[in-house]
């Protein structure tokens, strides 16, 4: 009988060792998962931190720029300011239509624009987009006033993220392809 007890004890011992190995393996998996989650959250927090650094509160926008903005767009709502590339950029709504403008430090308007329907694109621009990007569709269109001229910023659906600026006669002015999927510059 003692041999049976010893064998049983050995079996329990092997079972315990086997369970200990499985628990150790499981702990390693859980640790790896938590480490990965922590790293991902850190990367996300860094992106969010950068976005917050770009955003400005109205009180941080120079008075000359605020005065210029309020004079030109007195009915603006949902106003959001950002600082990019040394320019003060503002996105806002008027009559439920998305608008934007950019200002230099003195309050001079560098560019401004508004979202328009695809059907409002000049025929020359629509033809150019279809010819150059036949496999893509138009996602958003903005009419842009800059340096006394009218341009059209076209955002295409799909990957890579692509924004193209066209003159009113359909000539591509600036290609804004973004294969990495990061934030793109706006005019």
UniProtKB/TrEMBL annotation:
<feature type="domain" description="Putative beta-lactamase-inhibitor-like PepSY-like">
    <location>
        <begin position="109"/>
        <end position="170"/>
    </location>
</feature>
<feature type="region of interest" description="Disordered">
    <location>
        <begin position="167"/>
        <end position="187"/>
    </location>
</feature>
<feature type="domain" description="Putative beta-lactamase-inhibitor-like PepSY-like">
    <location>
        <begin position="51"/>
        <end position="97"/>
    </location>
</feature>
<dbReference type="InterPro" id="IPR021533">
    <property type="entry name" value="PepSY-like"/>
</dbReference>
<protein>
    <recommendedName>
        <fullName>Putative beta-lactamase-inhibitor-like PepSY-like domain-containing protein</fullName>
    </recommendedName>
</protein>
<dbReference type="Pfam" id="PF11396">
    <property type="entry name" value="PepSY_like"/>
</dbReference>
